[in-house]
């Protein structure tokens, strides 16, 4: 029985994460803290369907005051049991070059501040898992594959998020934490991504499966979801459940 906190839960991947978590039995998922800058109708509907177990918490990951207030709210619910799983999902994917600072604040500084703020509660939790939602386009090694995709600030910040994940995994390893990042795949989250590879439910199911099954052996790793039949897809993306080679440039068969 674990408690989860998910950022950016009002839409897309974040909303599907909290929806699937709420569908799990209480014996598996005790409390879901669904955080977002504002509450929309689908999020409120989930809260109404799962009173007491599904907790709406206002958070803007670029606003440290809102995060501080959120910690107080979560602590008032979990008490000495602490928080088991933190999923840093909130992100920005604006494809322009001029927004690098804003994108960095959401995609990198936001998760960093969230981890720092919730670490005392996570230390009290039984599971001690921190998952950062990343993307395969943040892999330096795979940039020859994704060269034509026009999202420089997104790529840069996801690469930085991967490095931040490794640093926290090293810092917290002796305390029994598992800190890792997962690429959920290119998902059909909205009309703009209607031609994406996978339904959002498929990607999120893969992510949550990794949260449940991954122990300390996943600490510091950048993982890909597994979707049967997509292991050797000839297109841009493959979903083989393995580590993504994020740290070097690929020349031929070598990684430098």
From TrEMBL:
Gene3D superfamilies: NAD(P)-binding Rossmann-like Domain. Pfam families: adh_short. It comes from the Eukaryota. One of its GO terms (cellular component) is cytoplasm. One of its GO terms (molecular function) is oxidoreductase activity. InterPro entries: Fungal_SecMetab_SDRs, NAD(P)-bd_dom_sf, SDR_fam. Belongs to the short-chain dehydrogenases/reductases (SDR) family. This is NAD(P)-binding protein. It comes from Aspergillus sclerotiicarbonarius (strain CBS 121057 / IBT 28362).
